[in-house]
């Protein structure tokens, strides 16, 4: 008998040796958000339960939320173009923290105090 409970996971499809390969995450973390060209991966959501498994591609809005930009607007871009723009991008929280880290390291290097903690 099929379980009435539903569970979701993330997965991504990679191309290896010309063949698509699915990698389903066992944790609650999304895998890599990559551009969909050159054999890279494409992120999906997997729904399991009630005797069925369903897979759908993540939307550009979901990509943006994972990247820390939930209010991002895509203008006239197609869904595919928006996902491509977000793939291989640097997430907003990383960029937000970078200027102060770079500035701190630069100041430390100038003062020849390279080992100092920022």
Structure, briefly:
By secondary structure, the chain is of the alpha+beta class.
Walkthrough of the structure:
It is a single chain. With 118 residues, the protein is of the alpha+beta class. It folds into 2 domains: 82 residues, no CATH class; 27 residues, no CATH class. The protein contains 3 helices and 4 strands. It has a 4-stranded antiparallel beta sheet with strand order 2-1-3-4, with no helix packed on it. The longest helix has 19 residues. The radius of gyration is 19 Å and the shape is elongated. The chain starts with 5 loop residues before the first strand and ends in an 8-residue tail after the last helix. 11% of the residues are buried. The mean pLDDT is 77.
Reconstruct the topology from this structure:
Blueprint lengths: L5 E11 L2 E6 L17 E8 L2 E6 L2 H7 L12 H8 L5 H19 L8
